[in-house]
Specification:
17 helices; transport; membrane; mainly alpha; antiport; globular; Multidrug-efflux transporter; xenobiotic transmembrane transporter activity
Length: about 450
């Protein structure tokens, strides 16, 4: 193999992917700050935050398909020089994001009875509903920001997204300190304070990214916001049909983890708090792979627009190797420093802290087991989104996560009596199944020439 020819691909992938990784990590750091500060505030409040964020994420995952789906679509249109298609697809993705967020807001407002129905304790369910009634308003900002991120990423303008997201981190920490704990003369608001802080940062970030997208010289020719109110029904339908399977795929994957949260809540509040910490640490490493997956979507989408099968192949190999290296480093961190990592989230003086650290540290062993397969499944999805193949991956995700992952998790945790470790082994099983099937589909399709045909596979 001629490794020299991969050097330009590696440089391009890192130049595009590293700012995306950084922005995902910065966004995740905001959630980590919420979790850490809520862990200092109280164990019940931390458990409520874990459940509330899981509930929010399921609705977010379903709606994010429109914003993610247009990334490959825009990259392909730019490679073809089709300015009209760039504007139409990005604009209608923003429309769909707003419409969706408004439609699902009632589910967050009345989330308490839903959480009680799936077995959560009354105090946890009430606090989670308090959080969601405020944070639900932020869904519009989050989804529109995601769409604009994709728009800029397709033009390989990702650095500003990183800096805007990073700027939000100290702001949310300060607002959490003021509103959660009641500092600087403000009332002590607990989980409601965390929700208010999140919404403020989300809308400020949206305004900043929208202003940049409007100002960016290379993007002015697309006139994204000119006559923004004009509908484009044909393009809206195309983006909807492309994005809905992606959203359902994200729900299937996110549902695997939310399902594990719900089942962990059946075991106990301490176990749920520990599970939330371990899962968030695993999510931090996932953000690295997600950034590389976004880069894969753009790079493969560009090659598709040029009709360049060899470019798709080399881009796919490059991003897969980079993500595998990241996974190996993550495994080493989880296996060597589990208690130190978990301890960052908790108040050492709290009576329940030692027990939670032991539970969470044990779970990080299983987090290490699925690092490589988690990396490969998200890279596989990114590669397939680059060629606008979304329906079959949706089926693969549903089968892997819901017919393999959830049943294995439930069976091991409750029927076999393994407990929390059994839930995590179910995560390993579901992610491994998805990784194998998704990677197989992309590489077999490339070998058959499926991805260089004129008509996209939606």
């Amino acid at each position: 193999m001629n490794f020299v020819r991969y050097i330009p691909h590696l440089r391009a992938t890192l130049a595009l992917g590293l700012p995306l990784v950084g922005s995902h990590l910065a966004r995740m750091a905001i959630h980590v700050a919420d979790t850490v500060m809520m862990g200092w505030y109280g164990v019940t409040e931390l458990a409520a935050l874990v459940i509330a964020v899981s509930f929010f994420n399921i609705l977010f995952f379903l709606g994010m398909g429109f914003g993610i789906g247009v990334m490959g679509l825009i990259a392909t249109a730019i490679a073809r020089g089709d300015e009209v298609e760039v504007r139409r697809s990005a604009r209608m993705a923003l429309w769909l994001s707003v419409i969706y967020a408004v439609l699902v807001l009632p589910a967050m407002w009345y989330s308490g009875p839903i959480l009680l129905a799936v077995g959560q304790k009354p105090d946890v369910a009430q606090l989670a509903q308090d959080y969601l009634r405020i944070e639900g308003v932020g869904l519009i900002a989050v989804l529109c920001q995601l769409t604009l991120n994709s728009y800029l990423a397709a033009m390989e303008r990702t650095q500003v997204v990183l800096w805007i997201t990073l700027a939000g981190l100290p702001v949310v920490i300060f607002l959490n300190w003021v509103l959660i704990f009641g500092n600087m003369g403000m009332p002590e608001m607990g989980v409601r304070g965390a929700a208010i802080a999140a919404v403020v940062v989300q809308y400020v970030g949206l305004l900043a990214i929208a202003a940049y997208a409007a100002w960016l010289p290379v993007a002015r020719k697309y006139r994204l916001f000119q006559r923004f109110w004009r509908p484009d029904r044909a393009e809206m339908r195309a983006v909807f049909l492309l994005g809905l399977p992606i959203g359902l795929t994200m729900v299937a994957e996110g549902g695997l983890f939310v399902g594990s949260n719900v089942m962990m809540g059946w075991i106990g509040t301490r176990e749920l708090a520990a599970h939330g910490i371990a899962l968030q640490l695993a999510s931090l490493t996932f953000m690295l792979h997600l950034g590389m997956s976004n880069a894969a979507t753009v790079r493969v989408g560009q090659a598709k627009g040029r009709g360049d099968a060899l470019g798709m192949r080399d881009a796919g190999i490059t991003v897969t190797v980079v993500s595998a290296v990241i996974a190996v480093l993550a495994v080493a961190a989880f296996e060597l420093f589990p208690r130190q990592l978990v301890g960052l989230y908790l108040d050492a003086t709290h009576a329940e802290t030692p027990a939670i650290i032991e539970i969470a540290a044990a779970l990080l062993f299983y987090a290490g087991l699925f690092q490589l397969t988690d990396a490969m499944q998200v890279i596989g999805l990114g590669l397939l989104r680059g060629v606008q193949d979304t329906r079959v991956p949706m089926v693969i995700a549903a089968v892997s996560y819901w017919l393999v992952g959830i049943p294995v998790a439930y069976g091991l945790a409750f029927i076999a009596g393994i407990g929390p470790a059994g839930l995590w082994l179910g995560l390993v099983a579901g992610l491994t199944c998805a990784a194998v099937l998704l990677m197989r589909r992309f590489w077999r399709g490339l070998a058959r020439g499926d991805w260089t045909r004129a008509a996209p596979t939606v």
